[in-house]
Amino acid sequence: MTKLLSFACLFFFFSINTFSQKIITTIQPDKSVKVAKLVPVKDTLSHWTNKNKIGFDISEIAFVNWNAGGTSSISGLLKTKFNRVYATDNYSWSNELIMRYGLNKQDGIELRKTEDAFQFSSTLGYRKDTLSNWYHSAKFNLNTQFTNGYSYPNKEISVSSPFAPAYIFLGLGAEYATKKKDEMLYLSPFTSKITFVLDQRLANLGAFGVVKAVYDLNGNLISEGERAKIELGFLLTALYKKEILKNITLENRLSLYSDYINNFGNIDIDYDLMLDLKVNEYVKTNIGLHIIYDDDIKAKEELNGNQVTVGPKTQLKQVLGVGILYQF
């Protein structure tokens, strides 16, 4: 899986536009000397479309002799999005890599993680004619994180780590996609969901739905927890992006998944809403709302100084940031 992660990163960071060269001959004023020079010309025959976004959001608040009280803090979020699309009349191959990582520091409190995401998706589609926006599609998704996660204030025992969990979706279905890729709907009746928990300690606890370890009555380990769980189910994903007002863009992403084998009808929900407000070419404000519900993810609570595992709960994250965004 580490090789897969490395390959995805290399694919996006070293993918470039194809260029050709042509020779242009110029004649000096005296008409006696001809000078040839090479001029780079973009290959207009390329079917690739590349989009890159790199941004950094920062927020800070400081108090000095402030009678109302308060805690000084500073937060930073680095975010990137890389898109590579190969399109012909009948074929489409879309690739997207999203990476985000954020940190927060408050007075008297250690550095804490606020955001951590690695998301790679690839969709290969075929349509019979150019009049239709429906494609026969095969889709691959990978979601994981970069560093350990903790249920603060406990920072001694991690509740997640790189590839613990990691989710892979691989399936066949039908996808509706506009030419600009701003409206997309994917339906798959056959999608395999593989959950990896490569941290053996977490796997032994049965974290994220894998089979936990078995112990005897004396607490001796009989068999270790499984580090992967395979499901087969129905997947629906949707994307809607629109400029609702001048310089204000709304983007919605929705994913619904239900496993046929284990408790069919119980739906995993992943909904992401982002509102981008453009100040100028480089400065943007964004407001985000992210909601997740997964029956396999059990919440952690602090009880009398100990972490206690409770049932699944709706996860909610709200983001407000102002920062610099560079597109190329």
From TrEMBL:
Top-rank lineage group of the source organism: Bacteria
Source organism of the structure: Flavobacterium frigoris (strain PS1)
Alphabetized UniProt keyword annotations: Signal
Signal peptide as annotated in the record: 1-20
Protein name: DUF3078 domain-containing protein
